[in-house]
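Hello,

Our lab assistant flagged a job as stuck in the queue for most of the afternoon. It eventually completed. Since we weren't sure the result was trustworthy after the delay, we are filing this so someone can double-check. Below is the sequence as submitted and the structure that was eventually returned. Let us know if re-running is recommended.
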Amino acid sequence: MKHGVTGWETHKCRCETCNAAIVEKRKKNKASHAKWMAKNPEYTKKYAAANRDAFKKYKSDWASRHPEKWRIMHREADWRRSGIKMNNEEYISLLNQQDYRCAVCGRELAEDKSKMNGNNVVAHVDHVHKTGKVRGLLCGSCNRAAGLLMDSASRAEKMAVYLGQHHGGTSNV
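-- returned structure --
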């Protein structure tokens, strides 16, 4: 077994020192590649367009080999696009804090569609749209209701009074 960092093909040693050196080298390569791509956006776009099928196949193969990482990566990307300031670790922590229950109605929540069992629903991240600050995790119905009430506590109170007056105060929860 050869010790020390030489080439990727010839390197066989997996001791802690060598492994740390390999990880560091990969980080540097990845960082320099990202900088180069940022400086050369036209080339990157042309290359991606010319190799679209190969990129799709690579992504598909990677996703099938790493389904959990793929789910987490896409979940976090969806949050970023929506302006939600949260990562997966914070999400799991919040689910645990709320005992996997909706913060409003107490309905049982699932981490994602793959974890649904018929008794639970997917958790939705409730957040302040202006700041991205997370308020809690809700079921889809409560999240939509909060949105339709324009996140207004006074509207919610008026709705509760209205429903109590016109529907006898019955509850489906």
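-- support follow-up --
The delay was a queue issue, not a problem with the job. The result is valid. Helices lie at 16-39, 41-50, 52-65, 67-82, 88-97, 140-148, 153-166. The chain is about 55% helix and 10% strand.
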